[in-house]
Amino acid sequence: MKKVIAMTDYQKSHSRNFEQETLKPQKRRWRFRKSIIWFIAITAFVVGMLFSPLFTVKSIEVTGNEIITDEKIISLSEIVEGERLYAVNLKKSAQSVEYYPFIESARAERKLPNKIIIHIVERKPVGAIITPSGYIQVSKDARVLAVESSISNYNLPIISGVELLEIPSPGNVIKNDSLVQALEIIEKSDQILLNNIAELNVGRADYILACTNEGIEIRLGGVEDIQNRLIDLNDILQKVVAQKISVANIEYIDMRYQGAPVIKTK
User: Fold this and answer.
1) Across the strands, what pairs with 174?
2) C-alpha 61: how far from chain center
3) b/e per residue, 44-68, with b = 16+ CB within 10 A?
4) pLDDT in tens, the chain (266 residues)
5) Hey, where are the domains in the chain?
6) Superfamily designation of domain 54-122
7) Contacts of 266 (CB under 8 A, 6+ apart)
8) Are strands 134-138 and 144-148 parallel, antiparallel or unpaired?
9) Considering only CA atoms, which of 40, 67, 57, 175 is closest in space to residue 113?
10) Domains 54-122 and 127-265 share a fold
11) What is the CATH number of domain 127-265?
């Protein structure tokens, strides 16, 4: 049996469909207008942040530095107080700092509302190569940090016997096998021993020679198993101090052979 639709029901249904079809464009227009309003509001907020005097650089903080001064790092970053906070190119500023040989890595960040923080990791000098032109400060990876006329304020062991055809400019790495040996000894020595080592001579073909601050000659040998010999050497030097053995009576300490080290007296 066919369903009979009353004319009044048909008119109501048709009226509702017509109203819905009429409202759809209106809703779309309202949503579009709403999107425009939100876009304008967000744009106005961003522009306000960019140009508002509240968001200008008023302080620059540096963290992680021990050797290089805050003023030097801020100068290298080329960030100036009064600059718009969001106009600062953080990546470019960090790269500018990293060009300095004493800086291994740098990272800059914004701190609302008006601060820039520069985080750095320094390269520290571990030794100074003696050359006719002066002292080359080198890092643990053989990178030239600076060339000075004197040893300056750093308490660094002198590395002698390194033959260089030319002195690389700061920031470059020195490729020299003898220097690598000296840096390996320095890296494997504890700070107490390093404080007592005045010089490492890697110019000999048969063994590496060290000299203490008191003038004691140390025949270290090669870099094979060097760490254990350095531990033994530190113990020996501590005993010399503890027993108040006259340094003038010691000709040399020989660490080249297995077994007990040899202390040769005069």
Assistant:
1) none
2) 16
3) eeeeeeeeeeebbbeebebebbeeb
4) 445 444 455 455 555 554 555 545 666 666 667 777 777 767 766 666 666 666 789 999 999 999 999 999 999 999 999 998 988 999 999 999 999 999 999 999 999 889 999 999 999 999 999 888 889 999 999 999 999 888 766 788 999 999 888 888 999 999 999 999 999 999 999 888 998 899 999 988 888 999 998 888 999 988 888 888 888 888 888 877 556 567 777 888 998 887 778 888 77
5) 7-51, 54-122, 127-265
6) membrane protein fhac (3.10.20.310)
7) 248, 249, 250, 251
8) antiparallel
9) 57
10) no
11) 3.40.50.10960
- E-state strands within 46-187: 59-63, 103-111, 115-122, 127-131, 134-138, 144-148, 158-160
Give dist(CA 45, CA 52) in Å, integer.
Answer: 10
User: For residue 247, how many other CB atoms are within 10 A of its CB?
Assistant: 13
Q: Shortest CA distance to 138 belongs to which of 100, 106, 179?
A: 179
